[in-house]
Specification:
The protein is of the alpha+beta class and 83 residues long. It is built from three helices and four strands. Strands 2-1-3-4 form a four-stranded mixed beta sheet. Helix 1 links the parallel strand 1 and strand 2 (32-38). The longest helix is centred in the N-terminal third of the chain and has 16 residues, at 13-28. The two termini are 13 Å apart.
């Protein structure tokens, strides 16, 4: 199973710029499960993944972390996070 974990916050400007990129990526990659994590609402999960800044995106394949990136990235970069 492929999963994209998106650590974000409502107050984060770059996170808002990432939203349409993620939407487009997900519409083109129906096999990727998406998990949006607000770091203010789920501090424990953010700590678990050692999140230092938002947005941070983590790709997981079969439950294992495959790749991680912080900041605003392209749809191409998102696609490359899954191999």
């Amino acid at each position: 199973m492929k999963e994209l974990v998106h650590f974000t916050a409502d107050w984060c400007g770059p996170c808002k710029r990432m939203a349409p990129v993620i939407e487009e990526f997900l519409s083109n990659n129906k096999d990727v499960h998406y998990d949006r994590v607000d770091v203010d609402e789920n501090f424990k999960k953010a700590q678990q993944y050692n999140i230092q800044s938002v947005p941070t995106l983590i790709s997981k394949i079969d439950g294992n972390v495959y790749d991680r990136v912080s900041g605003v990235v392209s749809e191409f970069r998102l696609k490359s996070m899954f191999g």
